[in-house]
Amino acid sequence: MNSIISKVSYLSGLVDGLGIDKDTKEGKVLIEVVNVLKDMAQEISHISDSQKDMEEYIDAIDEDLSELQGGIYEDEYEPYEDEGDNFIQLKCPNCSDEVYVDKDLLGQRDEITCPNCHNKMPLENCRCECGD
Ligand SMILES: [Zn+2]
Questions:
Q1: CA nearest to 123, candidates 83, 105, 34
Q2: Exposed site from 97, 120, 124, 130, fewest CB < 10 Å?
């Protein structure tokens, strides 16, 4: 972007150096055109700078967002791990298969269906410390 500014500076110096008559119609227009080009080059340079700032800012937001997402997934993962404590291990009296039962089910049901032999197994045979 500096190349545009340097080109316009060169052009401006050329206009001065060539001693273009500011009082002629062509001279007035030419000098005015060079002035507009100077303004445009400055403006483009500012826009370019602020766009670079914006890109850095967006990168920073992107990184923050990634960290934030990582935090959310960790938070979601923890209660899932805690659910492991909420299961008790029972042995099916029919097929002796180990069955994991949600502790919440113990208060709601008297028996469950064994996933292995599909026979009913009573929940009062619970071997955990829940008192059943
Ligand atoms: Zn069974």
A1: 105
A2: 124
Ligand 1 center from residue 91 Cα (angstroms): 8
- Are the C-beta atoms of 112 and 98 separated by less than 8 Å? no
Interval 86-90 mean pLDDT: 83
Helix 2-17 vs helix 25-82: crossing angle, to nearest 10:
170
Q: Is 42 helix (H, G, I), strand (E, B) or coil?
A: helix
**CB contact at 8 A, 54 and 18:** no
- Between these two residues, 20 and 61, which has the higher pLDDT value? 61
The span from the CA of 4 to the CA of 85, in Å, is 68
- Across the range 98-105, mean pLDDT stands at 84
Ligand 1 centroid, distance to 85 Cα (angstroms): 22
Torsion, Cα 123 127 129 132, to 10 degrees, reads: 30
Q: The whole model's pTM is what?
A: 0.45
Ranges of each domain in the chain: 2-82, 92-125
What separation in Å is there between the alpha carbon of 82 and the centre of ligand 1?
27
Three-state secondary-structure class, residue 82: helix
